[in-house]
Amino acid sequence: MKSKNNLQELSLAELIDKYPYIESFLVEQKFPLVRKDLTILEIYHQLSEGEKEDIVIEGEEFLSRVSAYIENMQDFLGEKETGVELLSLLAGNDKDGNQEQYERIDIKTGEIVALLGPTGSGKSRLLADIEWAAQGDSPTGRTILINGEKAAKEWRMNGSKKLVAQLSQNMNFVMDLSVEEFLCLHAESRLLENEHELVKKVIQKANDLAGETFSATSQITSLSGGQSRALMIADTAILSSSPIILIDEIENAGIDREKALDLLVGEEKIVLMATHDPTLALMADKRIVINNGAIVDFIERNNREKDILRDLKAVNDKLAKLRKELRYGKRPSLFD
Predict the structure, then answer these.
(1) What pTM did the predictor assign?
(2) pLDDT digit string (tens) for 205-252?
(3) Residues 242-269: pLDDT tens digits?
(4) In this protein, which residues make up the domain named ABC transporter (predicted)?
(5) How many domains does the structure of the chain reveal?
């Protein structure tokens, strides 16, 4: 619970400035919003007996109620510091019940991890284990640790506190809204401050990722697949409070993949990325290889692979240039 000692030192003005939603709560409790230079207890002690009766409960207890309300709102809004600095996987079993051949895999905030393996190998099962913070109670028997400890109940039971935000390769908007209206709706649902500033930032970042730009007034149902993915990646990076992001096959997204990953890790997220693309696989700091439901290898990128990545990026840049020239009816200048 938010410390009463900390709250009772704040003036009413400072309290409202730090927790804007507390103002409507105080109004509902019939607490007079006067003398905002005083603390809640100081104001309470200056109230008439009639005003105190309206509030029903006494000063110290009222402060505890304020503290509990702030705590609940921070949970709802995802404003609490997530504190997820380290995600750890403890070994479970493969599809045949055999023990996985590793003890523990650690993933730190800001790292990108590629998930590799054939279709049906168990990537989705691993992601489900992470999403639900499995404690040996999933089909794989894996255990997920947050900061080296078993995940707190809030990560498993609190619907408003999502550990993982997922971006699937297939997405379709069904709402008849403009891009701006859609983003404002999301920002409002999270009671974010500076809503319009954040929405503007999301659109700008999305256009940096998309091959073709769109405006705030564009209808979301009219966006191309690439524009939709770009919008949702920017939305997830800037508006979502989930500390872990899963992206499924970003290679098919039709966006600037490197910028997308930079945007996500720049927001201090852990990014897990299922991919079959060699460039994306080598962009990742680490690679988890899965087969028959088990993690069979965990590989950290080495210097040789960084050199290979530079060569692959050069090839991809040439292909992107060639693709753009042909798309706009120009003759290829690639080999000029």
Answers:
(1) 0.67
(2) 999 888 788 999 999 888 888 888 888 888 888 888 788 888 876 666
(3) 888 888 766 666 677 778 888 877 667 8
(4) 84-317
(5) 3
State whether 108 and 147 are in the same domain.
yes
Are 20 and 109 found together in one domain?
A: no
Q: Are residues 114 and 49 in the same domain?
A: no
251 and 145 assigned to the same domain? yes
- HEC assignment per residue over the chain: CCCHHHHCCCEHHHHHHHCCCHHHHHHHCCCCCCCCCCEHHHHHHCCCHHHHHHHCCCHHHHHHHHHHHHHHHHHHHCCCCCCCCEEEEECCECCCCCECCCCEEEEECCCEEEEECCCCCCHHHHHHHHHCCCECCCCCCCEEEECCEECCHHHHHCCCCCCEEEECCCCCCCCCCEHHHHHHHHHHHCCCCCHHHHHHHHHHHHHHHECCCCCCCCEHHHCCHHHHHHHHHHHHHHHCCCCEEEEECHHHCCECHHHHHHHHHHCCCEEEEECCCHHHHHHCCEEEEEECCEEEEEEECCHHHHHHHHHHHHHHHHHHHHHHHHHCCCCCCCCC
